[in-house]
Design brief:
single chain; 196 residues; alpha/beta; Rossmann fold; 7-stranded mixed beta sheet; two-stranded antiparallel sheet; 5 helices; 32% strand
Length: 196
């Protein structure tokens, strides 16, 4: 059995529609089997969309985009910003593109294992809900590689459950960046923000 954080998924393809309600607005997305939170918008990603700090951001990366809600909804709310969405998963890329087209937004969607296929690009803001089930080392790589691909003064904003690995990741961000703050919390999740 393959996992959502792997390049190819071998489970049968079962598409569904998801209704996402945020701040009084409704969004309809397509999702598919073998993607993370395939049946609904999970609490961590919801928090990231609601509370991400995009102050002065021009180039924004959604790292590990899944079926695309972060980049797409934030692009709808901030049309002047440039959004890039990446994921290692074939299905994630297909469905993020499908959802972007459905919502009429222009975002750059790139299949990439971390920054493998976007190595030359740097960002003002990187947003991520890393796959903690893939292990601590994988999540640490999300943080380390993000640090390398942020512009000076840019921020990494990572959402995680504080008592199930988030505290560890927040401490790692503090060690690497020299700073970390919790900019939002809800339902046991926190957004950890570090500035380069």
């Amino acid at each position: 059995m393959t996992h959502y954080y792997e390049k190819e998924q071998n489970s049968s393809l079962r598409e569904k529609e998801i209704n996402v309600s945020l701040n009084g607005q409704n969004f309809l997305f397509f999702s598919v089997s073998a993607l993370f939170s395939k049946d609904h918008l999970d609490k961590a990603t919801e928090l990231l969309i609601k509370k991400a700090d995009l102050t002065n951001a021009k180039e924004v990366l959604d790292l590990g985009c899944g079926w695309g809600p972060v980049a797409i909804i934030l692009k709808l709310q901030n049309p002047e910003m440039n959004f890039t969405a990446t994921d290692v998963s074939d299905r994630a890329i297909i469905y993020t593109r499908k959802n972007a087209k459905k919502h009429g937004v222009k975002i750059e969607v790139i299949q990439s294992s971390l920054f493998e296929n976007i190595d030359e690009k740097t960002f003002d803001t990187i947003l991520t809900n890393p796959p903690y089930v893939a292990g601590r080392e994988t999540c640490k790589n999300f943080i380390l590689e993000s640090f390398k691909h942020l512009k000076k003064g840019g921020s990494l904003q990572l959402v995680a459950r504080h008592n199930k690995g988030g505290k560890f990741l927040g401490n790692y961000m503090k060690d690497l960046f020299g700073n970390v703050e919790h900019i939002a919390k809800q339902s046991g999740f926190r957004i950890y923000k570090s500035i380069k």
